[in-house]
Amino acid sequence: METTLSSWSKVAEYTGLSEYEAKVYLALIDLGVAGARKLSLTCEVPRSKVYNTLKKLIEQGLVMEVPGRPKSFMAVAPDVSLKPIFLLVKKRAEEFESLLRTLTEAYRRRRERVVPRKVDVWTIRGRRRILERMRRLLLDARRSVEIMTNENGGVLFFKVANKILDKLKEEGVKVNFLSPLDPEKQLLARELSYICDVESVDFRLPLLYVGIDHSRFMLMKMIPNSLEVESESDVALFSEDPTLLSMISSLLLGYASSRREKPEEREGKLLSIPLLQRLG
Q: What mean pLDDT is reported for the chain?
């Protein structure tokens, strides 16, 4: 069983006291008041060393001399005498913890640049199943939704999600809808403009992209490119990786932007376009 005196090595480690200083101080805590002879016998510190050790402890505010003859001594209460040391150790520990967090973050940033990172991507087949998963995804939106699709995809999306879009507008979720649908020419686009920020772009790929809160997305390929709700040939990708979302979104936006330019302006630009066209 560990006694007060047997913990001298821990006290020495935490406080910076020498072995003799730690032993004498702890012996005084056990004894209450004691002279040099009794201290020497109790803590096994040579009597020739006890007085010099007591002097150092008094200078450090850990021990006080009790008036009278023969000389005797008592320990200052630990919660008073050791508190400055405790606060110093605590401060150093907090500074080290902060340094550790900074170093860990720097390490992670560097590691992400040089080490390939595996991301989770799920596939879903069947148009009805994909659209149902898309509906659930939309219901989870808290800040923003981005939709990009062709004309058929826009009509199909409105069929299955118009009530959810109303709900998102009520909740203050910002919805951006990019498709060839034009609010000035088409009634459906005009309806969408009441609940979304609608932008007319010449997007012809048979894809339906939905991004949620810049943190998750679904990308569906429509096979065939039709308005039917049933098609077992459709396939979709779903992921919660924000880096992959950013890449897919940038590719699609790049494609949509390129359709706004004249053919001669597009030459030599947007190397990703052939890849996207093959998706169709």
A: 85
**Residue 143: its pLDDT value, please?**
94
Q: Look up the CATH number of the domain holding residue 224.
A: 3.30.870.10
Q: What is the count of structural domains for the chain?
A: 2
Q: How far apart are CA 211 and CA 217, in angstroms?
A: 4
Residue 12 maps to a domain: yes
Q: 190 exposed, middle or buried (CB, 10 Å; 0-12, 13-18, 19+)?
A: middle
0.85 exceeded by pTM: no
| pLDDT tens figures, 85-101 | 888 888 888 999 899 88
Q: End-to-end distance of the chain based on CA atoms, in angstroms?
A: 77
* Residue pair 198/124 in contact by the 8 Å Cβ criterion: no
CA distance 64 to 222: 87
For residue 34, what are the domain limits? 5-77
If asked whether residues 273 and 139 sit together in one domain, one would say yes
